[in-house]
Input
Amino acid sequence: MSDRTITRQELPSPRYEYGGDDWVFVELDEAMSFDANFKAQAITQEIRQNSLEGLVEVAPSNASYLIQFDPSVLHPDELIDELKSLEDEIDVSEYQWEARVFDIPVFYDDPWTHETVMDFRERHQDPDSTDLEYSAEINGFDSVEAFVDHHAGAPHMVTMIGFVPGLPFCFQMVPRDEQIEVPKYEQPRTATPSRAIGFGGAFTAIYPVPGAGGYQLYGRTPVEVLDVDQELSGFEESMVLPNPGDILNFRQIDREEYDSIREEVENGTYEYNYDRVDFEPQAFFEDPRGYNEQLLEVLD
Amino acid sequence: MRVLDGGLVTTVQDTGRYGHYHIGMPPSGAMDQFAHKVGNWLVGNDESDATLEMTYMGADVEFEEDVVFAVTGADMGPSLEDEPVPTWTAVQAEAGDTLTFDFATEGTRSYLAVAGGVDIEPVMGSRATYTLIGIGGHEGRSLEEGDELPIGESPANADAMIGRSIAEENRPDYSATEINVVMGLCDYRLTDEGRERFLDADWKVSDEADRIGYRFEGPDIADMFEEREQPFGAGPDVTNVVDLGYPVGSIQMAGQPIILMRDAVTGGGYVTVGTVVSPDRDALAQCRTHSTVDFNAVDVEEALEIRRERDDRLEEIQNSL
Output
């Protein structure tokens, strides 16, 4: 077992890259870590607030961030200079934010994703097993049950929204040696059910809409993460449920509970179980297990 | 304006929906911004007014009132009441007239601008259609027979535009095959030799070329990359990276190169190696399936110069009108 703390990662010098004439991409690290992610979130929040003229898009991602700008107003080198000075100022351990902790019920090994998994076996590394069996085995678990217990056993932080609107990439809030890691499909699938729970690299994804996908599929949630018409409770401010920095707790449910929650979602009466917390990176780094327990108390 | 036939894929588009990339929402909007803007100016509109983008095979429409329109972009042989009408030119139509299109002979996308613009309620600040989640445009989808599109109030100068035309030398050449690219993003993953082969190769636009992205066929890409111990979180393939943001115009290496267009997926876990310069995204949008392009590496100052030249040309066109 691990030493029970999150080992801080010394980040390399960021790579500032031009994306054509109108984008700048900044890679804070090639590897995923909370340090890289929190820094990406902190810098993008700062750059939004200092309202530099000519900014078009500011999008944090897992260990990097992306900015689009209007080059007739802002030269890319001017933007990069500004980003470098922000980079020097920010200390991740002092960066705190208000996070929402969400209960996300998941029906693991559900019939819908199972059917998809079986339909695309020839695109998988191991056509003779299921995605769950394969992932459990390569991560050293004795059984699918133990693997699922691990995935649902500690909360996950949303570290990026993207690919398609509302899709959260989530990183489990445990020390690195307890993190699950799996490959993406050898060739992406052309179909994925909506609300499928997928896993690729070190990230859980929730697919908001049906479509292509390359992540290993583990289950399905009855709740929505995208509501374009903003009619459901929980979507008053945005069509997207979680923001980066929010925390999702995947909770194992059975078919009966899946069906009953799904019915509530479909008739518009479902209320998400969530609450707000002040997230303090330093406290989390020092004692992730204890800190997570405390976080999840707000869901009781 | 009534749609008599939706053509192959026809959507309402404009200059795009910005400020939502961080929730995974691409800008959408006209794939060929140059043709879209010029079409609008020809009928006295603002460049941000909504036009119809038609793909390969145009739509047929019936005008319900007298109106000034212009067709720009790919030439799909437009006819008004069965009489051919010139492209890149402001034309008067009368109430009840039918405007029909054929297959594109050069380029892929045609724009129909109507004085007053397609006046649909904007969604998140734009009328652009984004079909993946069904927002914007007409019910968030491609147009079909029977759809009715409201037209805004005609600008005061629209009638004065009738017969005005874009000079031949200011119309884009849709047979161009060189696409300017700023190499970068994660191109450190390429070997020197791999980078050279990528830039030297002829790349054929595959059948999978739409508003999300253009997939290309060409040499095997797997051995263009440096072998490494993959960083934590990336996944084991040489083309895997820790999921990151993809710029519109970026070249993503997922089995084969894919260039992301205006309905781009905003991020993912495949390595990106460069970004098409913005004016050349318009040119690429007009490249036909099975045509061949090659990528020309330019530095950022050259990219900015290419953009300035395009902006100057647009300004010249706008002033000439």
